[in-house]
Design goal:
Elements: H1 2-7, H2 20-40, E1 44-45, H3 47-50, E2 52-59, H4 66-74, E3 81-86, E4 92-98, H5 104-118, E5 122-130, H6 132-160, H7 163-187, E6 190-191, H8 193-223, H9 229-239, H10 241-261, H11 267-288, H12 291-294, H13 300-307
Parallel strand pairs: 1-6
Antiparallel strand pairs: 2-4, 2-5, 3-4
Length: about 325
């Protein structure tokens, strides 16, 4: 613990708020760019949302022969079929097949054709069949979950602090969520239920980081009643900087392990979390904090004057 403490910055005096206009410009570009990519390009919906068949196959002996598998499955005329190796042994393959016309019976027939084509050289560890109705319901539920989480976060911060803090936290969290959506639309990474879980986790992490800094602001408002808001915000960020670095580094290393060793199933989740850690830290410092200046947050002395109008008349 002492070794870690040696590398953490203490007593820093960085002028973070100085770059607020540049940060706001970057934030605007990220949000508008993300919305544009989402509208123009859309998402690469996984089986969870688009419907279809998902199969996890494992070679009984030796490594899976992807070339032979592709050639064999291409002759079945099942539409779009994608194969992707995952895991570290080279034996595991993820097979995705687009939704077939004709209802559940057509999906089962397609699954039977795949198994017959691959033969006895593979075992099937996981098979999922998702219909269009279920996919549409999951899309609506996923959107509803994200919207309700953002609303709950705003209400929580609003009641715990003041309205300025609630709006700042909401804008900051919205920024993190929408840019994560934009990342998936831009890169074409598969968007599934695991991705929704990652986005909700990002929202929770982001607001936690923001609340820690806002709590220090509130504490300093009582402690330094005459300090200008600009200086007080910088002081609050610097005082929580060591905690922020330690938290981000710890989670970052953990998520890296998920990315490299978690397999294909957790790949999208890990990428979303890594992006969320970076963008969440940025937004807490450069979006949530500077916005308090423009929402006319008052220092401790001004608050006392507002509470006691006769204070300015006393000799």
């Amino acid at each position: 613990m002492q070794l870690i403490d040696r590398f953490l910055p203490h007593g820093t005096n960085f002028d973070f708020i100085r770059y607020r206009l540049i940060a706001f410009g970057i934030t605007a570009v990220l949000i508008l760019g993300s919305i544009t990519v989402i509208v123009v390009k859309g998402f690469n919906f996984g089986i969870d949302f688009a419907g279809g068949i998902l199969i996890e196959a494992q070679a009984v002996e030796g490594k899976a022969d992807l070339h032979t598998m592709r050639t064999s499955l291409a002759t079945l005329n099942l539409g779009e079929v994608s194969l992707q190796e995952f895991g570290t042994t080279g034996r595991d393959v993820m097979i995705r097949i687009q939704r077939q016309d004709g209802g559940e019976k057509a999906q089962m027939d397609a699954l039977g054709k795949v198994k017959d084509s691959l033969g006895t050289g593979y075992t099937y560890r996981r098979v999922e069949i998702v219909g269009p109705k279920v996919g549409d319901e999951l899309v609506r539920d996923g959107i509803l979950a994200v919207v309700l989480s953002l609303a709950a976060i705003a209400v929580y911060v609003w009641f715990r602090f003041e309205w300025q803090f609630g709006v700042g936290a909401l804008v900051s969290t919205f920024h993190d969520v929408i840019t994560t959506f934009g990342l998936f639309a831009l890169t074409g990474l598969e968007f599934n239920l695991t991705t929704v879980a990652a986005i909700l986790t990002i929202a929770g992490y982001s607001v936690n980081d923001t609340v820690v800094e806002y709590d220090r602001v509130r504490e300093n408002l009582r402690k330094y009643k005459t300090m200008p808001i600009y200086d007080l915000l910088n002081l609050s960020v610097n005082e929580t900087l060591a905690r922020t670095i330690l938290t981000v580094t710890t989670v970052f290393v953990t998520v890296l392990a998920l990315l490299f060793f978690g397999g294909e199933v957790l790949r999208g989740f890990a990428i979303a979390m890594l992006w969320g850690l970076i963008i969440g830290t940025y937004s807490s410092i450069y979006v949530a904090m500077p916005m308090l200046i423009y929402f006319n947050l008052r220092n401790g002395k001004d608050r006392e004057k507002d509470a006691d109008p006769t204070a300015t008349q006393r000799p």
